Please model this.
Amino acid sequence: MRVDIRCFPCFLRQAVIVGSIVCSDLAGTKELIDLALDPIRDASLDDTPAHIATEVYKRIREKLNGADPFAELKSKCTKSALLMTADLEVILRRSSDPLEAAIRASVAGNVIDLGIYSDVDVESILANIMSESFGALNLKMLKDDLKNAKDILFLADNAGELVFDRPLISRLMKFGSVKVAVKSVPVINDATLQDAIASELPKGVSLIENGSDCVGTILSTCSSEFMRAFNNADLIISKGQANFETLDTAIDRNIYFLLKAKCDVTAEVMGVPRDSLVAVSNRLLPGGAGLDIEPETRKSGDEVLM
Model:
C-alpha cells in the first residue's frame, strides 16, 4: 500500500504521542518532532506508510538510547485485557458461529493501537465486540482454507490486543500447527516476545520473532527463520494496518488481513467503511490478484456486495 498525502500528519502525530509519554516539557517533544521531519522530507510517494513510520521510530529510538517508551503502557494494556478474559469467554460461548465470534474478538482488539490513538479504553472493547459491523468478512473462504491448513502463521500486532487474539489462535490450532510471530525489537506498542509470554497464549502454540525492527512486516528486513515460516505457511493471518500496508502485494501467499479500518486511507484502499471490522482474503482485495473467487462474503455493514 503506497503512502497517501494524508498519512504525513500522522507521522508527526506519532512523534507527539511519544513525546507526551517520555518528555517532561514541550521542548523535548519538539525535539522528537524535529527528528521525524527528516524521514518525512526524504520519503517517496512510492513508499508504504510503514516504511516511513519505521524511519521515524528509528530516529526516536536512537534518541532514547533504545529505550521502549511504550513498555509501561503495553504491560498495562495486557494486564487489563487479561482481567476481561472470563467475560470475553462468556460472550464467545453465546455465539452461534464460534469462528466468527473469535474473529470479532481479535479484530475488536485492534483498537489497542498507540501509534494512532493517544489513549485506549481497553474495557470498552467487550461492549462492542458483537455489535460492530464488518466492512469485509470472508468467513466461508477462510473455513474452506482451514480444511487444508497444516501450517498456520499468525502475525501478531499490538500488546494487549494479543490477549483478544487468543480465542482465534485456539480455534486455528484445531486445524493445524500455529506459529505466532512477534517483533524482535520494540516498535510503537507492537508485541514482542516478552509481551506474547505475558499474554498467556494457548499451550502448544509456537512463538517466533520476525528478526526486524520495522513497523509492519517488511520482508526484506526479516530473519531467515521467519521467512521459512512465512514461505512454508499454508495460511497466514495478518493482524493490523501496518502489516496490511507492507503485505498487501504479497499475492503469492494465502493471507487473511484482520484489522479495524481506523483511517480514511486504509478504508478507501480496502474498499470498506472507516472504522468497520475487516477480515478479508488478499485474493478479494480491490485491485488484488484477480483470482476467480466468488465474492459471496464481501460485506459492507450487513449487506453482501455481489
